[in-house]
Amino acid sequence: DFPALYALARRAAEKNGYRGQIRIFVTPDCNAGILTPHGGICAVLLGTLLLDIMSEDEIYCILLHEFSHISPETLAARKATGYAANFDTNGDYSMLNALSRFAFVFPDTIYGFELGLFLYTSSVISEASADRAMAKFGDRAAVASSLIKLYFSNMYEWASGTEDDTNDYESEELHGGFVFEKQK
After folding, report:
1. Which of 22, 30, 51, 143 could join 153 via S-S bond, C-beta 3.0 to 4.6 A?
2. Which residue has the higher pLDDT, 126 or 22?
């Protein structure tokens, strides 16, 4: 339904080495995402607010960022971060299993910490790599303005209470029972 948007997506995909089919899904937020190809189809998620505040060049940069996450260069890194420990006993609560799990509590704890650190670091590196792909294939001014718009959109959502509903500050309204007297 949106040939210009699909043309931008195809152009960004080809720059990152993806040649498969693309489906674009519109979401009600100010975000973008990509789902890895399944059955030869890649799903791109674009928020309506994002589409509303971005220029065509900025949307292209956002698409470059997303398609870099599924580029051939990142396949090995994505596969490496997909491995995780399976601590599920599959319902085996035997005494031997309990003793063996107790014996490995300390190494499992260290492994879990290091795995979490590895996954966090991999995520940061993946996002930085995707941002570099934006700068490599896109207009640097459009890259900068798109990232700034995303940052301030997130700050606006947080400040307006859509992200955090708590209010840690006292209201500026006067408490009940306080009466103003007219000054003469």
Report:
1. 30
2. 22
